[in-house]
Amino acid sequence: MRSTPGHRLSGLPQVAGLAAGLRRDIEVVSAVLPFKVNNYVIDELIDWSRVPDDPIFRLTFPHGDMLPRDMYDEVATLLDAGLSRSDLTAAVEPLRRRLNPHPGDQLDKNVPTDRHGRIDGLQHKYAETVLVFPANGQTCHSYCGYCFRWAQFIGIADLKQQISEQDRMVDYLSAHPEVSDVLFTGGDPMIMRTDVLAKYVDPLLDGRAEHIRTLRFGTKALSYWPYRFTTDPDADDLLRMFERVIESGRQVAVMAHFSHSQELHTPAVREAIRRIRDTGAIIRSQAPIVRHVNDDADVWAQMWRDLVAQGVQPYYMFVERDTGARDYFALPLHRVSAIYREALSQVSGLERTARGPVMSASPGKVVIDGIAEVNGERVFCCRFLQARDPAHVGRPFFARYDEAALWFDDLRPAFGEAQFFFADEAPQVLVA
To answer: pLDDT by residue (tens digit) across 405-426?
Structure first.
């Protein structure tokens, strides 16, 4: 695999022929937000005859509108001053912090503790599931411009989540029998060699955490580097590891990330999906709905058809989170709701399994079930699919309709209520 980092993207042969303004945008925006594109994405996923409107190009390459105008101009001035890379990095760090690098109270409310203090590299927001950020998995094969985990990739130590102490991870899990699922995330755990990943997986199979029923692997590798499961030197070892987990009586769930059906049509991805499924693992697919890439009901309907045809279950349609390049990618919630409903209307029951549109906010995963008129007031009909407080799971609530609302924090209670029922909840402090 050959990867090109953001500051070198403007030198790619495919980019050299683009308009000067596009090349300038690539240089400026990649100085603030992390970008990396590999040869598979460049050669097999992007239709260069459609650039800049090709959806995968929009997904993986910088664009000028990803930064607020004043920030763009400030960074452009820094670049023109000819600063060294280290001086430029130092100058843009405060700008990066303005882009809400860790939304949803991830670092304030989700990080558990043990007798040694915070366990940075674990998150335990929902009782049943613990997220693990392996230290060696804090990058990806390519980066999505809308990534809500972009702060993992910019080299600011206090923004990074990672754990290398496998025993500490297992000790925490052993002390929490309510946990049934462990989700390896990042970055992308599939960026690691199998023998490194196994150092996190195998301790969960040795009897110390018998209550763990499912190991999930959050990954974009099927989209950006399917050879990880086919021809990479340790691809077979990875699949044997999946089989070993399944033979232990647990389930393996590959939480794939497909944003567009264009990512599903290469021979490499089809073979990778087949090989994973042959191990007994299941594959579920999730992605946010974002402008310029998949803000079209036909695109989602076609992607769901293509996923199911290959044995992958559509799982979530997320709403773009309030971080990074959100202003470039975000859609009004009323538009997101309409696209979701229109996409559902085009597919069969087996292809309607994606829950959405879902906002992964601080109190929990909130789905917009639709827009209705209740007691003469137009409202968003909302419901908790998952919640920091388990008592809220499945509980509906109504928010005042607002055409400008982009995110959960933009919502206000309907019917003249002063606040939502969950507004004063105190987060549980999870301790081993």
So the answer is: 999 999 999 999 999 999 876 4
